[in-house]
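Protein Entry — a single chain follows
Fields — amino acid sequence, structure tokens
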Amino acid sequence: MSHTHKIFQLRSQLNACVLGQEKLIDMVLIGVFAQGHILLESVPGLAKTTLAKALAKSLELNFKRIQFTPDLLPSDIIGAQIYSPKDNDLQTRFGPIFTNILLADEINRAPAKVQSALLEAMQEHQVTIGEDSYLLQSPFIVIATSNPIESEGVYALPEAQLDRFMLIIPLSYPDTQSEIAILQNKHHTHELVPIFESYELQSIKRKIESVYCDESVYAYIVALSNATRGELLINGVQALRLGASPRASLDLSLAAKAYAFLHAKDYVSPSDVLEVLPFVFSHRILPSFEALGLGIDSQTILETITKRVPIP
């Protein structure tokens, strides 16, 4: 069975499991196929955990969930060395981070030391326990969640960690018909079955990386990145405080290729870049304080940039 047919089956199965979130599911699949980390932003109750579990089962990947709390310790995530009286020696106990898909629920409740331990794992795909380093499973993908309206007992994610997320995806409420179907329990009528085997993800990633991207489209991606790094006047004020990093350009290129691949295309067009741009760049640029005072946020800045940067 071809990858194209399997992807159609996978999207259908996930859409039947999580109703009314088709755009979300496409973006999550882009992140998973490109093996990038994902942050889902929404209020509670929009089936984020259900989606992560369904995704892991559909791809035959190991899945673990961590509920982040302010009293969490790094050892609760990565593991620790524990003294064994029987052997009179230290034994390594591995934490839940040793999995394929890690659901980091309410990640913004974790204190700084936990964030630091997770940062190493996300970037290096390894963790350090005691004096030894251990490679994580492949693929290793963090699907984190955060509630953007929470203010009690939360820690703002540092920019260095936000930059490790390939995509940040805001979830919206389902439409009326989808919510009625949820109440009728229709989303539980489909039993989840494995569609891809875990080893296939490596070949999919190679296919995504080989999707053709013309030099003019690469130049367009760089132009969009550069536009976030210099002077950008909106309503008479300098709108930008921090621009997108070169890692953001790399992620935008890979996400655009994954979007093209997901839609059965063998080349990247500027429209593919624009489809994924808000999800790749919005968390990597900081509006100036003057801009925030005028209600100018990251999305407004990106909309302005896309209008001003010529499309090839």
